[in-house]
Specification:
By secondary structure, this protein is α+β, with helices and mostly antiparallel strands. Helix content is about 40%, strand content about 10%. It has 12 helices and 11 strands. Bound molecules: 2-acetamido-2-deoxy-1-O-phosphono-alpha-D-glucopyranose (GN1) and magnesium ion. The site of magnesium ion has 4 residues, from loops.
């Protein structure tokens, strides 16, 4: 977690003097992030935050985390109990039915409380996900006069997240958090969850959208763009690998997290053990392969997805082994032989898919992912394409790791 320093450091976008996202470690100085809620004043944000405080005053409000989609703030109050909470504005361009997102959060939260309420976990650990906080009027969200959808979540205390994996111990913890999450939800029917993001992680759909954007907007050529165009063209046939298997009934839908990247796993600050998962907006019915692939593409790239050294990006097989070990230590029971058969493809596909999504958004003019400069999504795409290449070049070794862990 970023340290709190007083209200003085108001993000530049809110008229403050300077905000530098803490995690960005690129070589260039980081310009202030562009906000999709630009124009909202700090006073407005404080007023929104106050709707979610049953008692106490808001002492501090600051931008939090590095999400690419929603606007997230950490709020500090002078209440006797929980002193921090997370305030978020859901991005309406991404979440068209925010009320369904809240419904899923409630369904998952209730299910997890029931499961965790049965007694301590076998390994004696705590495991938490954020709780939905209500407004003073008892609602799970607040719509401001401009129509923005706001909600508040509890803050998991004494825990922290990192943007990249530090070592194999950390990797095992990240994998185990996802394994725990899947295993705790394995008895929740996916039919109970709404599809809050139709098309999410359906690679053939992203490819069709890419074709449409290319056709509609054209593209100005550069070496990086040419590389990306070729990269996608050469992998078109691979894109439907998971969806075809699902259509054939070989893989089936389960509740998934949807975005289990490294910085969505909370680690206990004292022990380093995984104690929870955050960012549950993408929870929905899906293939566990999306989650496993996404967790690995995020966790096995030590340079991180925001690096500017894209040519140096590498998929680290020993981190992959450790993440899978952690994952399978808790999730082995519900994976079938067929599930295992698609794990390598899932690793390769999810890296490729995110690269395709970033590249498409660059071509479309940065309309989905927040971008700090016009080429930002192109740079992010190159990182994922390079990662995909590294995965492909280690296909035999990665398949052997999966076989060994079976
Ligand atoms: C987005 O907003 P954030 O950072 O939690 C995206 C994920 C991507 C991720 C890449 C709803 O997540 O799918 O993997 O960026 N979320 C959505 O960092 O599209
Ligand atoms: Mg997310």
């Amino acid at each position: 977690m970023k340290r709190l320093v007083g209200r003085a450091s108001v993000p530049a976008a809110f008229g403050g003097t300077g905000f530098q996202p803490v995690r960005r470690t690129g070589k260039m100085p980081v310009p202030p992030r562009t906000f999709q809620n630009r124009g909202q004043t700090l006073d407005h944000l404080l007023a929104v935050a106050e709707h979610f405080t049953s008692s106490g005053r808001v002492l501090d409000l600051r931008e939090y985390g590095n999400g690419n989609v929603n606007d997230t703030f950490l709020v500090t109050v002078d209440a006797a109990g929980d002193q921090h909470f997370i305030l978020q504005r859901l991005n309406p361009r991404v979440f068209h039915r925010p009320e369904l997102v809240m419904e899923n959060l409630r369904t998952v939260g209730d299910h997890l409380s029931r499961r965790l309420g049965r007694g301590p976990l076998r390994d004696g650990r705590r495991f938490e996900v954020p709780r939905v906080l209500l407004t003073r009027e008892g609602r799970d969200h607040f719509i401001d006069p401009g129509g923005s959808f706001w909600r508040a979540l509890s803050f998991i205390d004494a825990a922290e997240t990192f943007d990249t994996i530090k070592d194999t111990g950390h990797a095992r913890e990240v994998g185990s958090a996802l394994g725990r999450f899947h295993s705790l939800l394995s008895d929740l029917s996916p039919d109970r969850l709404a599809d809050t993001l139709p098309g999410f992680h359906l690679t053939p759909g992203y490819l069709a959208h890419y074709d449409e954007v290319l056709e509609r907007r054209g593209v100005s050529r550069s070496p990086a763009v040419n590389y990306s165009l070729r990269f996608v063209a050469e992998r078109r046939a691979f894109a439907p690998v998971l969806e075809n298997s699902r259509a054939q009934g070989r893989l089936s839908l389960r509740p998934i997290h949807g975005d289990p990247k490294v910085n969505n796993v909370m680690l206990d600050t004292a022990t380093g053990q995984a104690v929870g998962m955050v960012d549950l907006d993408t929870v929905k019915p899906g293939l566990v392969h999306y989650d496993i692939g996404d967790c690995l593409r995020s966790g096995c790239n030590p340079l991180g997805e925001e690096t500017e050294d894209w040519e140096m990006v590498r998929f680290e097989p020993e981190l992959c082994r450790a993440i899978l070990q952690g994952y399978l230590s808790l999730a082995q029971d519900f994976l079938s032989e067929t599930d295992y058969a698609y794990l390598y493809d899932a690793i390769r596909l999810l890296a490729f898919e995110l690269g395709l999504r970033f590249f498409t958004d660059y071509l479309a003019g940065n309309v989905y992912f927040k971008a700090r400069h016009p080429e930002h999504n192109l740079a992010r795409a190159l990182v994922q394409f390079k990662l995909t290449e590294s995965i492909e070049s280690q296909a035999t070794a990665l398949s052997a790791i999966i076989r060994d862990l079976r």
